[in-house]
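Example A, followed by Example B.
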Amino acid sequence: MKKLFIAVMAFLALSACNSEKPDFLYRGLSTSLPLNVFIDSMAQRGFAVDSAAAPDSTGRVVVLKNPAEKYHVLLGQADGVIQAVQENWVLSTNDSTRQMWQKLRDDFEKETGAWPNCPMLKDDHKVAKFELESGFVTITLKNTYTPTLNVLYELKK
C-alpha cells in the first residue's frame, strides 16, 4: 500500500510539472518576458519604438521598426503582458510576396514538423495557420492593389 501511495504521489508531482504552459518564442525571444524587457531585446536587434505609427492611442499596440529590415513588428499587449506579435512585411511586387509566403510556410512546416491548416489558398489570397503547444502562427498573403504579407504569433490563453 505504501508503494502504491508513493507511485501515485510521484505521478501527481510529475503531472504538475508537465502542466506548465510551454514558452512561446518569437524569433528566439520569449513572449513571456515583460514588455519592457522584450522591447529592450528588440532594440538590441536594431528595432526602435515608432510611437507615430501606432494604430491606436490606447497604448495596447507598440510598433517597432528597423530600417534595415523589410518588415515592422506590432506588439499587442495588455498590462505589460504580450498577447500577440505581428510582422508586417513591406515588399514591392505580388510575386515577391508569393515567394516570401511560400518560404515562410515551408520554414514553419520544417520547424514544427506539421502541415498547416490552410483555409484560403488562392493565387492572391493565402492563409496558413500552424498550431503549436503554446500558440498559433498565421501567415497571411493578400495581394490586391498593394502586396501585403503578415505573420501573426498569437499566444494561447
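Example B, a separate protein, is given below in the same form.
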Amino acid sequence: MAGELDAYWMPFTANRQFRQAPRMLARASGMSYWTADGRELVDGTAGLWCVNAGHGRPEIVAAIAQQAAEMDYAPPFQIGHPKAFELARRVVDLAPDGLDHVFFTNSGSESVETALKIAIAYHRARGEGSRVRLIGRERGYHGVNFGGTAVGGMVANRKVFGALVAGVDHLRHTHDLSRNAFTRGQPEHGAELADELERLVALHDASTIAAVIVEPMAGSTGVLLPPKGYLQRLREICSKHGILLIFDEVITGFGRLGTPFAAQHYGVTPDLMTVAKGITNGGVPMGAVLASEAIHQAFMNGPDGVELFHGYTYSAHPLACAAGLATLDVYAKEGLLTRAAEVAPYWEEALHSLKGLPGVIDIRNTGLVGAIEFAPSAAGPGKRGFAVFQGCWDRGALVRAAGDNIALSPPLIIERQHIDRLVGILGEAIKATA
C-alpha cells in the first residue's frame, strides 16, 4: 500500500511515518467517522474544528447537489448571484453589531490574508499610508499564507520560511501554567499582558501600526483562553491609538463557545473578523472577512471604479454559498449556535475528571472546546501528545494532537453518551502512555 500513497504530499503530516501505518477514513455520519477497515471513531474534533452540525447532514448535501445542477460556477468579478448576497446578509445578522459587510474567501488562511490587506489599504485610503506594521501574538495561528504565517506565532510554522513579511511584531502569549493551571473557563490572571501592546506602540509609534490580530481563543496551539479582561484591554489600547483590532474567529465562529461568535461571548467587538470552517459545516471550502461600516465606507469614498483590488476566482462560489445557507438553516432549526453553552457544564466536568492522570499538567475548557496538556516525555517534546492521539485512534476516538496537548472540539450535536465515550477513551489512552 505504501507505494500507492507516494503521490500525495500530505499537509502538516509526518509523511514517511504515515505511510508506514496509514490512518485512513472512509465515511462519516453524525458524530462518527469510520475507518477504511470498518472501525467507528467518535469525532472529538468536528473534523478539523469545522463540522459543527455533524457529518452528512441531508439538508446540506441536498443543497450542494441542487446548486451544482442549477449553476455550478459564477464569476465573482463584476457579476453576482443571489445566494452570495443572501448568505452575506444572514452572516451579518448573526455577527456582533457594527460588523456590517462581508468579503468572501475560500479558507481561513485567505480570510486572514484578506483582512490584513484590507487593514493596510484602509489606513492608506484615510491618508495614513505610514500605517503598515502588523502585530500578531506568540503561539497564535492565522493560517499558512505569507501574511498569516508572518503574524502567527507558532515557531515550527515560521522557522524555515524566513522573514515572510517585513514590519511584523508580536505580543506575548497568555499561557501561564504557574498561575492558571486547571482553570475552568477564563483564567483569572494575565489581563496585564495586553499592556504589552503599549510597549510596542512606544517602540514603533502608533503612526506605523495598521492592525493587531489575535484569536479571541487560540485553538491550534492547544486551546489557550484569554485571561479575564485581556481582550477588553486590547480593544481599549487599539481604539486609543487608532489601530484596527482583528479577531481571527476561524475556529471560534459559529457556535463553538456557545454564542454565534467569540466576540459576543467575550463582549468585545473587533474592527475586522475572519471566519471559515463552520460557515459551511466543512462541506465546501469557504471563508469570509467581516468589516465594520467605517472600514467599508473608507473605500466607498474614493473615485468611481474598483474600490479594492483583491479577490479570488472562487469568492462566493455558488456551491459554497448553497452549503452556507443550508448550514445556517440547520444551526437555526436546532439551536446549535447556542447549544455549546447548554452542554458546557457536563463537558467541563468530564474533561476535568482526567486531572491526576499520569503526565497531565493542565486542563482547559470553554464552551465545547477543551485541551489536556502533558509534561513532555523523555522521548522529547510532542511525543507524549502524539502517543495519546494514536492511542485514541486505536481505541475508537479522533482527537487532535498539538504538541504535548490534546485539543478537543466535537460537533455541536454531541450528547452526554458521546462525551462519556470520548473522555473515557482519552483516559485509557493517557494511562497507556504513562
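On Example B: The chain has 16 helices and 15 strands.
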